[in-house]
């Protein structure tokens, strides 16, 4: 790709890192569980991994954090592989326009969540995974380790325990979905898998690598395997672009113009098809639950490089 020769990515990331650090303090760190509330707001990391093997980092790119909803993408990949297109009979693919943990649309839409990137949709995806895999937690962990090339990736037991203890809204969503017949497994098991997925701890480099398969038609260069079919990789990217940052997806498409997925831990992963994947992390969130400085950094990155799907 010509962009790979044209740009000095290390210098670009360093420029963004410098700019962003002057704005430390903006946004609010997620406070629904103590382990997230105690993360210092003055952190920023950015990593970029290209399909031809370059790795560029800036700031706190090697500091692990709670990946939270970013794992909804990996979960969707695992579920699509076993359920195929029928997955979309149980979960939609339209942006929700409401907050990621909202219950209201389910009432009007007969228990079919708008998309797999919001909590309701991810719970149905978790249910599908539970129906098809015997050891789902191990399968997910293995998937993350193989995609990132880091055998040290693991769950954070403290985050898992607090998610479970305070997850009344997710429990409500799961029960509500069940009332429409859209959860088939034991509710507790579905929630446990969902919380496990949220509690994965990774750093920017691992996370950027973990989504490289979405930049290359489902082929993961880290593990040298076809992870998912090209048509499925295309669909996952489409869902990320339209729904990956919840009710700010329009704003992200407008300012950044890349398929991206955020989490309330402050991470955002974005894909530049055929070129690279990148990850930013800064714990201060905007009102929609997306990293405020992370969003700014991605905006600046596409502005400087012109790398966007548009
Ligand atoms: N653990 C969070 C929840 O389920 C994840 C949400 C997120 O990252 N947006 O509410």
Automatic annotation (TrEMBL):
EC number: 3.5.1.2
Keywords: Acetylation, Hydrolase
One GO term of the biological process aspect: L-glutamine catabolic process
Gene Ontology MF terms: glutaminase activity
Residues that hold substrate according to the record: 69, 119, 163, 170, 194, 246, 264
Top enzyme class: hydrolase
Catalytic activity: L-glutamine + H2O = L-glutamate + NH4(+)
UniProt-listed InterPro entries: Beta-lactam/transpept-like, Glutaminase
Top-level taxon in the UniProt lineage: Bacteria
Record text on subunit structure and interactions: Homotetramer.
Similarity remark: Belongs to the glutaminase family.
Stated name of the protein: Glutaminase
Organism: Lysobacter defluvii IMMIB APB-9 = DSM 18482
Upper lineage: Bacteria, Pseudomonadati, Pseudomonadota, Gammaproteobacteria, Lysobacterales
Chain's gene name: glsA
């Amino acid at each position: 790709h010509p962009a790979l020769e044209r740009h000095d990515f290390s210098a670009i990331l360093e420029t963004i890192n410098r700019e962003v650090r002057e704005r430390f303090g903006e946004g609010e760190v997620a406070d629904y569980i103590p382990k997230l509330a105690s993360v210092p707001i003055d952190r920023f990391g950015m990593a970029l991994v290209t399909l031809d093997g370059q790795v560029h980092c800036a700031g706190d790119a090697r500091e692990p954090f709670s990946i939270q909803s970013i794992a909804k993408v990996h979960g969707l990949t695992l579920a699509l592989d076993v359920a195929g297109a029928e997955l979309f009979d149980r979960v939609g693919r339209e942006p929700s326009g409401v907050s990621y943990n909202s219950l209201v649309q389910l009432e009007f839409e007969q228990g079919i969540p708008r998309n797999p990137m919001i909590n309701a949709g991810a719970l149905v995806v978790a249910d599908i995974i539970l129906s098809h895999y015997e050891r789902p937690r191990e399968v997910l962990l293995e998937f993350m380790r193989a995609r990132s090339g880091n055998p040290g990736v693991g769950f954070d037991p403290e985050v898992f325990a607090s998610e479970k203890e305070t997850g009344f809204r997710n429990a409500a969503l799961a029960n509500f979905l069940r009332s429409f017949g859209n959860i088939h497994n034991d509710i507790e098991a579905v929630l446990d898998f969902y919380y496990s997925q949220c509690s994965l701890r990774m750093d920017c480099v691992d996370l950027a690598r973990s989504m490289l398969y979405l930049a290359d038609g489902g082929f993961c260069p880290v593990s040298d395997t076809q992870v998912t079919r090209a048509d499925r990789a295309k669909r996952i990217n489409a869902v990320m672009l339209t729904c990956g940052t919840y009710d700010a997806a329009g704003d992200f498409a407008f300012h950044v113009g890349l398929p991206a997925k955020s989490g309330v831990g402050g991470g955002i992963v974005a894909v530049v098809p055929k070129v690279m994947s990148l990850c930013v992390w800064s714990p201060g969130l905007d009102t929609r639950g997306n990293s405020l400085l992370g969003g700014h950094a991605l905006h600046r990155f596409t502005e400087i490089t012109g790398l966007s799907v548009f």
